[in-house]
Specification:
By secondary structure, the chain is of the alpha/beta class. Helix content is 45%, strand content 19%. It is built from ten helices and eleven strands. Helix 1 packs across helix 10 and helix 2 packs antiparallel against helix 10.
Length: 252
């Protein structure tokens, strides 16, 4: 059975998805579709994100912002003062250092988006999408970027981690996108507790970046996970679950 969650903001979307996954048999949902409006972070009720980040810190896991940056380095973009070329140059300059960390040893999502392939023959998929749109080709099948690389990612290893995100698609609404843009991310597997919030946030930032370059506005984010799972025990995460239930009850 397909599970679909639609809300007006990211934190509520994540909280509802987490609760539903926590309550599911074996804490696993196949598949899970989460959709939310692309609202400004400053309008969010911070209680959900703060609660999650406090729990992640206690578990010695990465914060939601750190996970976000694997898909789109928002702070680096702000430091680039609106210069897309400078953003790419900055990221590729620090990539050798980023790659030395355990979580990036197999690659990063943003790196695959802006330099897919090998060093001597790579493609900036994001710029190709933007350039294609600006030159008048509005074919929807042209507005997609891939992460999964069979030459690097097919493996018989029992555990690998990267890449869980397989593909992103940018979907214009209305004639020539006059009603805005949405971004759709496809995950083979997604960790609800450790990664989903940051994943959603990263997709939203990436979608906003691309929409702005295309002269459009980002309206919605959609994340499709074929395997949506909580890997930690229910006992460990029960306090988080109870707190989220209380927050959502108070928001009704």
């Amino acid at each position: 059975m397909i599970h679909i969650i639609e809300t007006d903001d990211l934190p509520t979307a994540w909280a509802k998805a987490f609760i539903e996954c926590y309550e599911a048999p074996y804490s696993c949902i196949m598949p899970m579709i989460v959709k939310f409006k692309a609202t400004d972070e400053n309008t969010w009720d911070s209680s959900i994100e703060n609660l999650l980040n406090n729990n992640l810190k206690k578990s010695d896991e990465f914060s939601t912002e750190t996970v976000r940056n694997t898909i789109f380095p928002e702070r680096l973009w702000k430091a680039s003062n609106g210069d897309r070329g400078l953003l790419y140059a900055k990221y590729l300059k620090i990539w050798p250092r980023l790659k030395k960390t355990q979580q990036n040893r197999l690659g990063s999502y943003f790196k695959r988006l802006i330099a897919f392939g090998v060093e001597t023959n790579s493609i900036n998929q994001i710029e190709e999408i933007i350039d294609t749109w600006k030159h008048g080709t509005h074919r929807k099948s042209a507005l997609q970027a891939t992460i999964f690389n069979p030459f690097e990612d097919i493996s018989k290893a029992p555990r690998r981690g990267f890449p869980c995100l397989q593909q992103v698609v940018f979907v214009p609404y209305g004639s020539n996108g006059k009603n805005g843009l949405s971004i759709v991310g496809f995950y083979a597997s997604q960790d609800s507790y450790r990664k989903a919030f940051g994943n959603y946030w990263g997709l939203m930032c990436l979608g906003r970046y691309v929409a702005n370059a295309m002269g459009l506005s980002l309206k919605e984010v959609c994340c499709i996970a074929s395997n949506y799972i909580i890997k930690d025990t229910k006992t460990k995460l029960k306090p988080l679950y109870n707190s989220l239930k209380e927050i959502l009850k108070n928001e009704v």
